[in-house]
Design goal:
There is one protein chain. This protein is of the alpha+beta class. It has a single domain, classed as Glutaredoxin (3-Layer(aba) Sandwich). It contains nine helices and four strands; from the N terminus they run ααααβαβαββααα. It has a four-stranded mixed β-sheet with strand order 2-1-3-4, sandwiched between helices. Strand 3 and strand 4 form a beta hairpin. Helix 3 runs parallel beside helix 5 and helix 7 runs antiparallel to helix 8.
Length: 189
């Protein structure tokens, strides 16, 4: 059996260092209405005391590369959660890149063959890839996949909208991101 091609090695530190800090990324947004919405939601995103405690007590730095562009509705919906968590965690560092800035990186994170953003790549303090998240919570990704499989994408998108409405505090996103932050900050297996 022929061996599949190997993905090129990624120097995650170089990718991270090439990205923009959140403040620069948001100030350079092309869609100013979306930028304003992201900022408002970031400031309003609730994090309960348990989450705040975990974020404040990270044992070591976690680096997150966010593949995000401000025109995208899912970026507007989910970047504020990541940044609210970064605001609460001195050890959580984020950088933003665009899809076309690092095509080899983005190609690793297609969603069912599609180019969907945001994609958050979680790296340890040694810039080892530990996980990724996006473009939406797992339950929503499953609905979209089922919609594609059944040929009824419109119904799937309606169900996703209902899930978003039912979780207006984005608890599912917080939980999924917190799991990945915990993994990336691990000091023991």
């Amino acid at each position: 059996m022929p061996r599949p091609p190997i993905l090129p090695l990624i120097d995650w530190k170089v990718v991270f260092d090439s990205g923009e800090p959140y403040e620069l990324w948001i100030s350079a947004a092309e869609n100013k209405e979306h930028a304003q919405a992201i900022e408002e939601m970031r400031k309003a995103q609730p994090l309960d005391a348990h989450v705040m405690g975990l974020l404040g007590a990270l044992a070591r730095p976690v680096h997150v590369i966010a593949i995000a562009e401000d025109w995208c509705g899912d970026v507007v919906r989910h970047v504020p959660v990541l940044e609210a968590m970064a605001d609460a965690a001195p050890q959580l560092k984020t950088r933003y890149i665009k899809r076309d800035q690092w095509p080899d990186v983005f190609a690793r994170f297609l969603t069912n063959g599609g180019e969907a953003i945001p994609r958050f790549v979680f790296l340890s303090d040694a810039f080892v890839e530990c996980g990724n998240w996006g473009p939406m919570p797992a339950a929503c990704r499953e609905l979209i996949a089922r919609g594609k499989a059944s040929g009824d994408g419109a119904a799937a998108r309606q169900k996703v909208a209902a899930l978003y409405a039912a979780d207006d505090l984005k608890r599912n996103v917080v939980s999924e991101l917190l799991d990945l932050i915990d993994i990336a900050s691990s000091t023991v297996p």
